Queue: 3 jobs
Job 1
Amino acid sequence: METGLLRVLLNPGRFFEGRMQGEPSLKIPALIALVIGLIGAVSAVLIVNITIAMLPADMQAFGMIGAVFAAAFGVIGGFLNWFVFGIVFYLISMVFKGQGSLTRTLEFVGYGFLPQVFGGIIGAVFSYQLLSNLTIPAATTPEQIVEFSESLASTLATDPLAQIAGIVTILFMVWSANIWIFGMKYARNLSTRDAALTVGIPVGLYILYLLITLTGWL
Amino acid sequence: MKPLYLVILSLLCAVMALAGPASAGPADITVTAFSLDPPVLMKGDTGTLTVSVANHGAVPVAVRSARLYSSGVVALNDPYLSVGDIGAGTNRTFTFTVRADGGEGTFFPPFVLDFRDGAGSLRYPIPIRVEDTPLSASVISKPDAFSEGRTADITVRVGNPRPNAASGVQVVPQGTGFTATPTGGFIGALAPDASGTVTFNLTPAAETDVTFQVVWHNGINTRTTDLVLPIAFGEDKRQADPVITNVEVMPEAGRYRIVGDVMNVGLESARSVLVTPGAPATPTDPFRVYVIGTLDPDDVSSFEVTFKADAGVTEVPIIVEYRDDNGNRYTATRMVEVGGAAMPLEEQEGGIPVVGVIVAVLLALGIAGTIYYSWRRT
């Protein structure tokens, strides 16, 4: 049962221990990052569609271009997150005198993004549910578009569904962090405590940022 | 010869003295008075003519008949064919029903008494005046403009230009598309050159013509005069005029909130002022209706309403309801754009999506279990 990617989720310690026996490979982590990027692209397109819907008919062609860009940035974002988290973990682990290649770190961090696939899907469902319940008025002037965008941001910030989606994101981030602890332990040859600190500090700060955003303190 | 003349003269005087009373009887009959009710007839009117005859002589006078001949007016009843004696020093009254069948003017139908025994007759022309001038009616007070459902005071004056009095004068508004209070106004008797007024509270439901029918009696005859007042709706130059300004649309979770100002730019007060959103908006608490109360001219008041609206609704009417001093209800509507505002269409029960919460809790439990499991297996 605990084979393949499922093993990463349920028994990451054993999984990474086994992966350490072979050469580092970024194929599957890259695939995971691509899937996450595609899911992010879908969510981004959903948001852009709202803007397109309120644009005048003659300007909707520009909206389509925006949707393409949003999808592209969504896909790139998946890879960007992977690299940023990998490099941050690698740098922090250097404080704890971690040993191991960046490639191996990126490989294990990429596997740690696997829960984000499920989180991304559930988040996209929540986004769709939230956005499909919005009234999309036709805007004819840039001022109206700005006004709509402001009210949309206000609505999204205060909508209970959006807040639940944020909590779900945090839950999956915690799950990923758990996998990353095991990943960094083996990739950088750290103690469990040092691995937990390597992952916990940046992820904790990120979760703190998400919580502050959700509660509207910013 | 002189005594003979004296005898002849005495006999002649005696004959004359004996014959004198018999020939002086009809000469003592005179018409002492006559009256007509009504005093002045209108064309087609029926009146009652009373003629009084007196015997001023010392002996009764035998009368065969009394009749009134037609001249401009027609006697409707039969003549008196067996009158009998009119005693010495007594009066006798003869009554005729007459009808004015001719035109206007003064007519002189002769009253004729025929005496018995070939004593001749008495012929007396009775002056009867026929004038067709009706009562006059005019509206002396009405509003500048009429509005649907707005009660207006209308005063009607009725004057009597006739030479005789009119009785039982009343004014009755007639027609459809309005209500009037009272349903009729009674003035009573109107002397010549006198006038009377009646005021009606008239509430039109549609543009129409109101006929004020003046009904009066000339003797036993009922006469009418119509006064038509066209009711055309227009704008009262003084009426209250609430204007909505400074409108701000605020989308909220599950509803819209609109705040703004209402100003009365009319010259009369607007009373019982209410502000409410109209269809397709559905008013919701806490401000389904905003009560302002009385808004005097040039006064301004803020308002606040909350409502829901379906998807695709880009503008909703904001309705100002108010009354005038007479309690008539008016509305003023201003369309407000709600475009550019995002709003969840269906508010979840209690404001919290239960399904989302359940999913989040299950995920939290699942992830916690997975993390626990991963550390246990290490």
Job 2
Amino acid sequence: MGMFSESIDVACSPSGQPESLTWAGRDYLVCADPVRWYERRQWWAEDARAPLGSGPGVVDHEIWRIQVLPAAGNNASEPLTLDLTRHVGSGRWRLLRIHDALRPRTA
Amino acid sequence: MSFTHLHVSTAFSAHYGVSWPEELAQAAASDGATALACTDRDGLYGTIKHLKACMAAGIDPIVGVDLAVFDDDGDHRTQVAGRVVVLARGHNNGAGYRALCRLVSDAHARTSGKAGGTVPVAVTRAELASRTLDPATLKPVLTVLIGPDSDVGKAMGGRRYLRPRTLFKQWLDAMPAGTVVAEIVSQLSAPGFPLSTAHAVRMLRLAEEHHVPAILSNAVRYCAADGAPTADVLDSARTLKSLPELAGEPLLQPTGQGWLKTAEQMLGLGKEIITAAGYGAADLKQLMAQTEALADLCRMDPTSDMGWKQPVVPEASVIGITRDPHMELIQRCHAGIGRRFPGIGGHDEKTMMARLEHELGIIRNLGFSSYFLTVAEVSRMIQDMGVRAAARGSGASSLVNYLIEVSHVNPLQHDLIFERFLSNDRATLPDIDIDVESAERHNVYRQIFERFGSERVTLMSMQNGYRARGAVRDAGMALGMDDDEVGEIAKQLWRFSARKFREALQEKPELKEFAGRVEHKDADGNQQLDLLVDLTERLDRLPRHISMHPCGVILGDATLLDRTPVQPSGLGLPMSQFDKHDMDPMGMLKLDVLGVRMQSAMAFAVREVIRLHPSKAEVVAAGRHPAGPDGRGPDYIAADGRIDLNAVPLDDEPTYELIRSTHTLGCFQIESPGQRELIGKLAPREFNDLIIDISLFRPGPMKSDMVRPFLEHRHGFAPEVYPHPDLKPVLQETHGVTVFHEQILKTFNVMTGCGLARADEFRRALGNEALETAVEEFFRREARARNYAPDVVDKVWGTLKAFGSFGFCKAHGAAFAVPTYQSAWLKAHHPEAFLAGLWEHDPGMYPKRLLVAEARRLGIPILPLDINRSQAEYRVERVEEGKDQGKLGIRLSLNGIYGLSATELKRIVAGQPYDSLADLRARSRLSKPSIRRLAQLGAFDSLHREAGGHANRADLVQHLQQLQAGKGARKGVEVLEGQLSLPLGDVELRNIKPGLPAPTLVENVRAELDLMAVDVSSHLMDSHRPLLDKLGVTTADSLLSLRNGTEVLVAGVRVATQTPPMRGGRRVVFISIDDGTGCVDSVFFHEAQESAGPLLFGTRLLLIRGTTRRTGPRGISLSASMAWDLARTATLPFPESTPHADSDGPHPLDGISRALAITGFSG
């Protein structure tokens, strides 16, 4: 499993679930129900401040595990499993992990 | 749609919950909730605050507790299986709340009440089961929530299928039908981890399999997501591990999702769980409906379930009263008239009787007669124990209290108003506070328990919240910072709220250096300090633990323990989980039995006087007392020499002379630097002056500049001004300045005719933004209607508004002034006995060593420690030889010597006298280090002299040291060569070889400071004298002869540090130092604080430059401009002509770390 953190464009459904994304110039579609959870952050090491009123997102961040297929391409390719995180304040998405076992052979 | 949170920890779950009940109730109500639960951990600590908050927010309170349950299969004393939430059911006339109280008390019954006890707070499942049914009706009154923290929930991890089922089944088997529900919680952690949706699903399925209702909760720890980091820090403080350590284990909350989520969010959460479980919409509806159904079952009626605002006092029969309590009270009052007002008649009698009728009428109306009888009973009981007791507080305003001997202040004489204490408009139980000798306080408590029965009495508790120092320490620990580094920072935090830490960094000079470090990060680019400030602010005021309140005792009837849970206090007696704020809402009668060290010190002094002078004639001669009516001395001295302090007339001239001299160290209430300055200016001549003095020395009057005009009018520098002639009778005693609450009441009454009872309600409303406007309207309208001119009305309202909220109750002042006067009286007439009492009970604000200096100033010899003469307490002794022969001196006590145990002390005293060291060892079985320490302090010097030895103290100490090092640690008999048990004197002492140089004075003083925290042989500043001379320092005793405004240097050891509130809100720091000739009080205003910086709070020995300020005919203080640390010789401002001293030579304080005991300051 690789650990990354790179910015990524994600389009969501009205209820906030990821539906499609653009990564490294290619478009992907979410092909299965995503799973969502929260993970702790080592905020005392990562953040310089934690004043009262910081709001949510100091202690944990939201993780989405999604399976995607390229939007355009042969249907034979296997789905890719990605872990994404959404920043609380900006709403920006970052790619956290690509799961090795499922990495496309062509890459 | 609304949702009811049934599992919520408030901030009163110490080191766990983050949010206050008010925030939670407000948030719930504004989201449309109609009820909210409070389920604090281990107790009902926040329950009453929750009740109040819910009532204010207009929602129904639900009460419960989050409790640990012992493992049925494990060791019942220590092993806990998990935690469950227990909710009380409501609308059953208190049956649910009663069971909850008893259950919580059960959980604490086995704990020790001491820190570090090994028995956890927990119940057995059998106890829990037995409490769930009401014993009378056998109906369920409690509901147990089996959730993620229970043994069942904790077994959900991994792939074990059977284990959670077995555990759940055990619960169902053990608990009565209908008392168990499953609590479904998901805090959205990663799949398969605790508090994940996957675990919630498993719990939900389990409930369904066993046909047990399931409810949804969020196991709330904070009101909003912002509280999550605070919860992390609290977890660290609770477990005493840093966040990085906890994250590794992993013991932190898995996510930060435990906030009071909205109904919509909870529905979404429910949907997520139901979907993940593969259930449908009907199941979701059922989950939400079951949650609300349980909530409905548990809604509390504050009045019928919990006794909201219904006063309960002990049954009259307990204090032996069979008839109507009010008739009994009337009769006792009448019986008191003869004692309190002998020979009263005519107009005085009429006034007194009218007042009595008035008070009794109000008391009858309120139904408080048995309350007064109860207090009288306690008060009588204490006096029967032979313990000094005096009522204080507004209770002194009551003639009834005076007549039934609860208070000793005559309210008529001092013009005290009953309505300030009690009125028909005020139906809460009034406070009566009783001061007793501190040394007897615990005995008094035990006696109260015995007298009323342990089912009717419990101690009150108090909540201890985070203040700046504790907060910065725990925040530092959470961040894994170095202990010493955090300690250094904590030292500089002095008297401000942690919440204002960042603000303080900008303002406080002593934090300047730290602020710079925060600004520029650390040398290593470390940003921790910035976080440290944020986390410290987050902890501010959060409760840390409860402890025994220093004086509150709760008295109730036989149902008291159905209305408050109790837990053991450190004292062994049970303590309520409720604090003083919970008393009035719960209708609890609280008696303040306050231990006052000064009362003990005075009682001790009186006993010493009688021991030294066992007859009236001797006491009269020794104390230079007046001859009295028959020429043989005053009536307040009994034939055996016992002084009845309470009977001493309040007009003794030598006492006022002493007070005016400002040499009031050791006197109650008037010994602080600020007070000495004030009495110097005020120059009291009579008792009422003392009342005024004490009432003026309060934050309010000091802040609002009432003191200066008062003094100007008093001394006739400025004419007295009255806003209107009608107010002259009200304000005359304080020369036109409003000082007392009583004057506010009368002002209202004079100008509006509102009556004193309403006037007191108005006074209470002053300073309260919401209520004050209505009071102002009323006042202006009524005063205008009575034809007071608009400018008069404006002016008087201005005064009321400004002073009303913090004026002082004259009854308090009068009650305080009594021990003030009594202590000054003792100091004036029997200074040796009084000082011995002060040393023995240490009542004051100063370190003990300052009293040594005071004894020196008074010329009272201090007699050294002596193995045969020193006792377990300080003693006054007639000096038999030497230059002080014939004087009374004070012999040092063996108590309080570092390392000497209480049992050793007892054995030494029991075995006195000793004729040799061998004798001492044999009979007292002292440890060798203790013997050596006694030798260092010179306790064997006289024995040594008698033995005819030629060696000195150093030789003796060395001899003992060799013995200690040479042989095993066995205590008891040590045989030295040539030693026989013959009456030959001490062969051992005689045979010690001389050789070492005698210890220097500095060494002796250092030993005294190290082992006793007092410098007796000489003042610890004496060894600095050459240095001080070089610097050109002025001594304390010569300051008074200087002109006002002279610039001087003074030097000494810190004895007091105070930051009283001041006018304009700018901080002023008072530092007092002692240089061996007396005390120098210095004031650091803003600029001086800037230049002194960290020295303000961090130094023991100070050199201060300042200009003299004359504060009265006998008073002088210093306005400081700069300070130095005397120990850092290189930095000192030597005159240019003198060569610098590189070092100051050895000093007694070198290497001694007992800062608090020596300087009265733990900085």
Job 3
Amino acid sequence: MEIVILRGEESQVYNVEIENITLLSVLNHIKTKIDPSLTYSHGCRSGVCGSCAVRVNGREQLMCEYKPSDGDVIEPIRNARVIRDLVVDTSSIEYFNLRASAWSEGSREGCVSEEEASRIETQTDCILCGSCYSACPVYAVNPEFIGPFALTRVWRYVNDVREEKSDGKMATVQTNGIWDCTLCGACVPVCPQGIAPMQDIRMLRTKSAMLGYPDPTMNFGGGFDLGGWDF
Amino acid sequence: MSKVLIIGSGGAGLVSALSAHEKGAEVIVASKTLPTRSQTSMAQGGMNAVLSSDDAIENHIEDTLRSSAGLGDESQITFMCERAPEAIRWCNTIGLPFSRDDGGEIARRRLGGASAPRACYAQDYTGLKLLHTLYDQCLKAGIEFKNGRFLLNLIVDHETNRVLGGTFLDIETGDVEEIRADTVILATGGYGALYGKHSTNSVQATGDGLAAAVRAGAKLADMEFIQFHPTALKGSSILISESARGAGGYLLNAENERFTDELAPRDIVARAIHDEIDKGGTVYLDIRHLGEAFINHTLPQERKLTQLYEGIDPVHELIPIKPAAHYSMGGIEVNADCMSSVNGLFAVGECANHKTHGANRLGGNSLLELVVFGRHGGAKAAEYGTKNPIPSSDNPQLAKDTNFVRGVMYFTNQIDFYQKQEMLANIFYNNVGLVRDDMGLKAVLGAIRQMQKELPFMGPRDKSKVCNTNLVEFIEFGNKVELAEIIVVSAISRVESRGAHYRLDAPVRNDRMFGAHTITWKEDGVLCADFIQ
């Protein structure tokens, strides 16, 4: 089986005679038996640590959950500075979660029904692997976009019935946030945890409208400002 | 204001960071990975606490003590169990999304060795959700993270036996740097990765903090006690959570018969499985009768991973399993304030030995331990640093380690360390695993001593300065070899069977001779061991 790995500007082809194992196992084989300079991140090998997201034939995958086929092309995830081979700078994870104030402001005690708890079950499955961030086309035009994983995280706290002061979070996601998303949905199929950040962003938009924030996408180019009329 | 350096960013590191920060300390967390990528993300089962009147804290203490097989410290266990309800409340307050029962209370399940259902959980993602909740809180608190920093050594003033900070390889740049602080908290996790493909652990669990601690003059305790999880996937050692058995899963031998109490403590179940496998049979976990809906809701990870790694759907088929190295009970010897034998050096979580697990840990007690002792250790470290600020003094450690990292590039590479690492994992699984004897242990010790001599003939083959993971893995291998010797010497010294340490040639517990902790340390590079009450 031939595996092509993008290393900096160049692609390198590796020939491995093993079948039916994960891409991560293939790379471990290459690193320990063929080429120790091949550089990538990994950890738990069971899909929870979020270390090993890459792009395979143009689509984001966790290496530990993907079984490769002959000719697969492996590249680092996008929208992040490549440090070496498949390792990218992960500082955006801290940066955007900070920008979004993606944390609990204080969660009350007391009963929570199973139904209420299940509302944030999927969003809290996030492993911060960066796949959604890599797939998002908005970064090409707006590098300051708070982006899918951080906005999902905000919705996770806003939608948590235990949260007492979450409304304030809506202010932090108005600029470079929920309105900058194009709702293209590229983040949805690439999530290894089945999270749909685009849906979460929609929910944040609805919540935002309920709290009285204006919807800038509903701007009709001048509206009733008479100065805009051109006779 | 004291400065606290926390090394390691898993659950224990983040809890202690929040705690030291609350006490007014300036906190820096240095870690070889991004915080959310640590071992804690893999914890599934839950966190033990007595939350209602149908259970009692005394029972939690009693279960933990019994399982610890004489090596648990009653006052430490009491400290942990009494603070468990408050630990759960605190986790809820910061937003950990616990699963709920019919009545809307935090749901609990029964894990092995527990007399009541008391493991509070968040589906089978308890560790993941705890870790991410903690990370979010650390960002809120403005904790400074230095990610991608690989610990080389602790900086110690040997005259005063006082820690001054640590030296790190900045993995991205390849530079060696030092971080000084009034106190250092090690929260670097366990050493399960020594068992390689026979471990459920992350490849990152290489015991770097323990190795650095012993080089710095700290004492380690009970290093021979390594818990084997009964149910890992046969081919890949991927963990199948104990909650699968807690929910009613069966263990079946090659004849399709049940052969043990599935909910006995882990050491007993793991050895029963080992004996069946030794007879030449495959052992299976059967959860088919739990039904697809239940499996999808409660054990979604297990289903996905079994399909991926074994090509088997547990809804319809039996899961082939084996025991695999899972948790390091041994660790840095610490006192009730979580401080090691080096002044100002604290340790919390799996890298520490808080004497709460003794010879065998109960499922659901490790997340609890990291919350309770993370909070306690963080506060104590902040306090100690305020009372005893470090003097600014010259120390040769940074120069030494800078030279080492430069010099290691010239190691001769006649011997492939990856091959030796695999061999070490295999001989450890076979001879320092569930069943041990003097001859097998001594053979492993011989192999380790040989590897120690061969280290200069190994080395990284990749010569890049930038992001050299081959170099990092070589230093990790060095740490594994350092700890391997200590584990094996401890296992040879303990000529009895107790908890996770089972000697075929001494199958009976001997309290008169060995009812004590195996304390190990290095003096001028020479390994010393003693049994101390």
